[in-house]
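User: quick one
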Amino acid sequence: MRNISVFVNDKKIRTEVPISQTLLDFLRSNGITSVKRGCESGECGACAVLIDDEPRASCITLTLQADGKEIKTVEALSTRQDLSELQKRFIEVGAIQCGYCTPALLLLAGHYLNTAVSPLEKDLREAISGVLCRCTGYVKPVEAIKKEIRLD
Amino acid sequence: MGLTKLTDYYRPKKLTEATRLLKENDGFFPIGGGTWLIPYGGSEVKGIVDLSESGIKEIRLEETSMYIGASTTLNDLLTAPETSSHPYEFIRETIISEGSTRLINSASTVGGRIALGRGDSSFLAGLIAVDATVILFGKMSEDVTLWDYLNNSELQNEKHIISGIEISTPTNIHSVIFESISYIPSSPPLISLALYLTFSVNLIDSVRIVLSSIGEKLIRLEEAEAMLLGKELDDKLIKSVSGLAVKIVDPAFDPKGSSEYKKAMAGVLIERVLNKIKDNRGGS
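Assistant: Done. Structure below.
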C-alpha cells in the first residue's frame, strides 16, 4: 500500500492505495461511477479522464501515476443544480442511446472545446475518436457538440 | 490487468536514481506512460520505475539536429511547432498513420515505442529511415543507431535507460517520404513504407527503405538500397527495385491482409515513392 494525495474534481483526497490499483478502480471505489469499465486495455475510451488536463485512459493508468495530480471526470462539467450547456445539447439532440460512453464523450468534447482556438468538425471528431460508440455512429454526438459551438 | 506480482512503484526525479533502481532490482521495469506494460505486463513485473518526471521530456531543435527526450509523448510530438514543417513533418505523418487515439498518444512515449520495437510502428520506420540515434543513459559506449538498437537483443536486455533520440538534420535532403495503405485513412496501415533518399548531383548517394506491418519486426530493404546506391533514378531502375522488393519481402500471417497482397503492395509502395521523387526532380 502507498499513501497518495490527488485532487478529484477539485476535491482533495488523501488515502492509501494498493500499488497495482488502476485509476479506474480508484475512482469507481470513491463513488465516481461515470468512469466506465470497458476493455481494460485503453482501446474503448469509456474510462477516459483528464489528468492535469491531458486526456488519459484510466484503465491503463496506475493510481500512483496520478499521485499529486489533478483528475477531472464528467462530474466536473455540471453543478449540483444544473447541467452544463454541452450536456443540455446532448439531451436536446438525442445524442445518447445506451449511455455507456456518454460521460467519456462529454469529457473529451468539453476538453476539446476548452482548448481549441478555432474548433473544426474534423478536429473535434479526432478529439472524441478515442471513445468507441457503437450506438450513435457519432452522428448525434457530433451534431450536439457542433450545436453547442454553433459550428455549421 | 496482469500485474499480479507488482509490489513496488517509484517515480524518480533523476535518471541516475532510475538506473540504480533498475540495476539493483530484478523484475523492475521502466515505463513512460505505461500504455503497454500496465495492461499487458505479467507476473514478471515486480516493480515499476516511472520515468515521467526524470527530466527527459523535451523536444530541442538544434542547428544540425533534433533531440527528442524519451518521455516525450506522441501527442507532444503531434502538437510541437518543431514537427510542423520540413524536414520533420514526417514525424507527425508517421504517428498519425499508426491510428492511435488521443487517449493513447497523450500517454505513449517515444522511449516506450522504441523499447517495444513493434514491427507495425510507422513512427519507428520513419525514424529508422532518417537514421535516428538512440541515446542510452548510463552506457559508456557510443550512441547507437535505432536500427542497430532494435536488432541487438543483447543491448536491449541490458539495464540501461533510453533517454532520448537524436535526428541529424540532413543538409542535402531530397526526400523523406512516407506512404501507407490502410482500409480507411484513420485505421492502422496494412503496410507502410518510409524512405529516405539523397542525391549527389544526379546519383543517389544515400538511401534507407523501411517497411512496417510486415512481421514482428520492422524490415529494412538493404538489398534494394544497394541496388539504388550510386545510380541515376530512372523508370528502369524503379521497376527493378520494386520487383526486388516483391521478391524478398516475406510477410507474416495477418488476417487483415494476405501475404501475397502485402508482397504486391510492397512493390507498389516502393514504385510509388520512387516515382514521386523522380517527378519532383523532373527526371525522365
